[in-house]
Amino acid sequence: MPIRFFTEEINFNLKEKKKHRNWLTDFVKEEGFIIGEINYVFCSDEYLHKINIAYLGHDTYTDIITFDQSDSSEEISGDIFVSIERVIENAKQNKTGFEEELRRVIAHGILHLMGYKDKSSQDVEQMREKENNALQKY
After folding, report:
1. What is the per-residue pLDDT for 10?
2. How many separate domains does the chain show?
3. Pairing between strand 64-68 and 3-8?
């Protein structure tokens, strides 16, 4: 399977894995890409914090880190680390449900693999639009 789900240092089980795979595959196809190999790793805050320090030099907590391993511009591949604890906090802050916030973060990671950024306000606006589009298709 080109999309796989793992956990590290947290007790979490993604519901409806097949539905998530189909949703992501369809979304990626609609954006004009094909999936090589994508690994989602659901983890604890501390696990992702250590990755953030070790690989990006950022001493901050975050909800997601994406490592792009794509070899071509058409095929996307990579490892996407998601802090379940941050997703829970985001859902509370945004007054949304956990499942919806998790799907938003899952889509966010795959959008990074497609080349979308979130550094400038314009980038963030485009990213949110793409996330919302993906969420509507779930």
Report:
1. 96
2. 1
3. unpaired
Give the CA distances from residue 62 to residues 27, 32, 111, 116, in Å, rounded to whole numbers and listed in that order.
24, 28, 17, 18
Backbone angles phi, psi at 25, to 5 degrees: -60, -45
List Cα–Cα distances, 54 to 6, 47, 92, in angstroms: 20, 11, 28
What residue numbers bound the domain in which 67 lies?
3-136
Phi then psi dihedrals of residue 31, to 5 deg? -85, -5
CATH number of the domain residue 17 falls in: 3.40.390.30
Alpha-carbon span 101 to 75, nearest angstrom: 26
List, as own/partner pairs, every contact residues 1-7 make where C-beta atoms lie below 8 angstroms and the sequence separation is at least 24, other chains included.
2/35, 2/36, 2/37, 2/38, 3/35, 3/38, 3/40, 4/37, 4/38, 4/39, 4/40, 5/39, 5/40, 5/42, 6/39, 6/40, 6/41, 6/42, 7/41, 7/42, 7/43
Q: For residue 72, what pLDDT is reported? A: 86
Q: What is the Cα–Cα distance from 29 to 23, expressed in whole angstroms?
A: 10
For the cut 90, the answer to whether the pLDDT of residue 128 exceeds it is yes
